[in-house]
Amino acid sequence: MADNDNIVTGKNYGIGIPQVTEGYFLKGCGHLEWGMKDRLSRIFNPKSGHTVMLAFDHGYIMGPTSGLERLDLTIVPLIEYADCIMCTRGALRSIVPPACSKPISLRYSAGSTVLTYLNDECLLDIEEAIRLNASILAAMVAVGDPQHEGLTIRNLTKMVDLGTRYGIPSMGVTAVGKELVRDARYLSMASRVCAENGAHVIKTYYCDKDFEQVTNAVPVPIVIAGGKKLAEREALEMAWRAIDQGAAGVDMGRNIFQSDCPVGMIQAVRAVVHDGAKPDQAFEIYETTKNA
Ligand code: 5RP
């Protein structure tokens, strides 16, 4: 216990040595406050600056999607390989082991399903995100959807306000309706709208042409969704191109959990995202694991 005896006068003030003021490794996040940066540093690896998020929140709009029928059997074995997991509160409470110690990207918006029309969504309570120790909040933003654009952008701004109150960053998830084209023009517009409205991270799709325009038009980190299932080699090629053109990582679901070797696939994706492995090298990792 501290007491008043033997108080030694301090001498080591490092006079003449300027105090070290570190920068922050994530694009556009240097002016955020400490709690936000701490949470983002759990999601993005400070060494590579990148992240592999494992997304398995699809059930909230799609029900028991192929590969997600039994989360305990298919997803839990993958969690150890992910930097961050993206899921609903329902999946979190029912199947994710709390001792897994992975940062949570919490699906923070909820609403209509594929049986009607998408994007008619509301937000969860911020207390729920705090209870669940969320590291980032994620809400759908439907830029260009004539019915729900305004609603989902209001959801985003509300989420950013609530999260900011408690130091929790927000991720805008760009939802592309069937009638909209996933090209660089649309994706940069949708992603930029999310960033301008305060999202700290943007999740969007990769596009083959001019994806660099998307990453350059947005002042915060972009992670790409995998989209529909591709052949493994093709999905690894897409991840490699996205990183090469400025993405800060992936938030991938179906291309991992619908693979015929999900553990091999997530390790291959990690090699691309964190180690700069080329698609062929990463595909070898996948094949080796699959054939072991
Ligand atoms: C569902 C989502 C998914 O998390 C997102 O689409 C990523 O998964 P996938 O790689 O399967 O596209 O936001 O609403």
What keyword list fits this structure?
about 40% helix; 13 helices; about 290 residues; binds ribulose-5-phosphate; two-stranded antiparallel sheet; TIM Barrel; eight-stranded parallel barrel; alpha/beta
Description of the molecule:
With about 290 residues, the chain is α/β, with parallel strands linked by helices. It has one domain (about 35-290): TIM Barrel (Alpha-Beta Barrel), CATH 3.20.20. It has 13 helices and ten strands. The protein has helices at about 35-45, 60, 70-75, 75-80, 90-95, 125-130, 150-165, 185-195, 210-215, 230-245, 255, 260-275, 280-290; strands spanning about 50-55, 85, 105, 110, 120-125, 135-140, 170-175, 200-205, 220-225, 250. The strands form two sheets. It has an eight-stranded parallel beta barrel, surrounded by six helices. A two-stranded antiparallel ribbon has the order 4-5. Helix 7 (about 150-165) links the parallel strand 6 and strand 7 (about 170-175). The longest helix has 17 residues, at about 150-165. The chain is globular. It starts with about 35 loop residues before the first helix and ends with a helix. The mean pLDDT is about 95. The chain binds ribulose-5-phosphate (5RP). Ribulose-5-phosphate binds near residues 55 and 57. Ribulose-5-phosphate binds near residues 57, 225, 226 and 251.
